[in-house]
Structures are given as structure tokens and as C-alpha cells.
Amino acid sequence: MSNDTTAEEHPVTATPPESPFHTTGTDHITIWGSNAADTVAYYRDLLGMSLVLRQPNLDDPSQEHLFFDTGDGTILTFFVSDDRPSNPGPQRTGVGGVHHLCFNIDPTRFEEVREALDAAGRSYNVFDRGIFFSLYTRDHDGLIIELTADKFDFPDERKGEVLAKAQEIRVEAGAQYAQTEHLEAALEALGIDAEPYDLPDASSGAAGV
User: Fold this and answer.
1) Prediction pTM value
2) CA triplet 53, 120, 84: central angle to 5 degrees?
3) What pLDDT, on the 0 to 100 scale, is given for residue 2?
4) How distant is the alpha carbon of residue 102 from its chain centre?
């Protein structure tokens, strides 16, 4: 847990920082993948992402570059090659490596997502993460994939503002991590009228809790 000095030096806020410039969103994320067939089968045919572009890797034409629309225009791309078999075992990455990718799903279709993963023979774990509800699984190359469902129906463009306010309320309450009650209080404090989604009960999965 961060000490008080560090928290004062790096305050949590939705206000843009005083930096030379600001990013305007996420354009794409690129992953070293295995082969095209298994990558398309997982991300297009199971997760439902449209395959919107495929072409040679401009830095290495011996590889193919696959582009998937994750659902909101944010693009996920993979460098793939048919001579690389899938490896579903857990990945071991160090500093700078990717721990997991997280994608939004429709909270009203959470059970359908579980059923689809069951039908595909994919194992998963479900956790109530306090500020959202998450399902964790792995892709064909062992990369952790988190599928997250919002707990309340409120505008995406206000998510940063809501989370920053929930953080403020969590700290004031002396809680170890942000929970549903802090999220609810943040929505109320910001005057956001948000309806809760009907999601199943689950443990937090938090270590030591």
C-alpha cells in the first residue's frame, strides 16, 4: 500500500495533468501472437471482435498483421506467423510485459458469456472487483483475458471522474480497496443517476481479504 508521502506526490484525480501534451484515447494495442487461424478463432469467433484489416507486418513482411475492432473502435492487433503454434500455458513476463488485457462486455448478457466459454471448453474465474464485475480466462496463447461488466449504467465518458471520486471516498473511509459502496457514493456525489445491473454474487478474489 502506498505511504502518505507517495500519495501526496502522486494524487489521484480525473483532472488532466499539467503535461506537455495529452493523449486523446487508445488507438491500438499490438501483441506478439502465434498463428492466424487460432488467433481469428479466439478473438473473432469466440469473443466476437470484427477482423477489420489483415496485411503483412510492415517491419517484417514474413509475418501477418491482424487488426480486430474490440467493439468501440479501439483496435487490437497481432503479429502472427503460420509457423508459430499456439501455447496455452500461463505466460511468465517481467517488468514491461503485459499482465492481461481487459474488454468490456454487456452486463445484461453475463450469463450468455459464461455459457459460451463453457461450450468452447474454456476455463474461467468470476470475481466481484468492487468497482466492476470480472471474468478471467486465457486465450490460445496463455494471455490472461479479463471480461468486465459494469455494475451501474452510467456514461463511459464519466468513468474516470467516477473512479477518481470513488478513490477519494475509499481513502476517507480507510478501506483497503474500492468497493461497491464507494462507487455508489461517488455516483451520488457527482449527481449521476445510474441504475444497477443484475449480476451474480461472487467473492472479491483479493489476496489477504
Assistant:
1) 0.88
2) 50
3) 47
4) 2
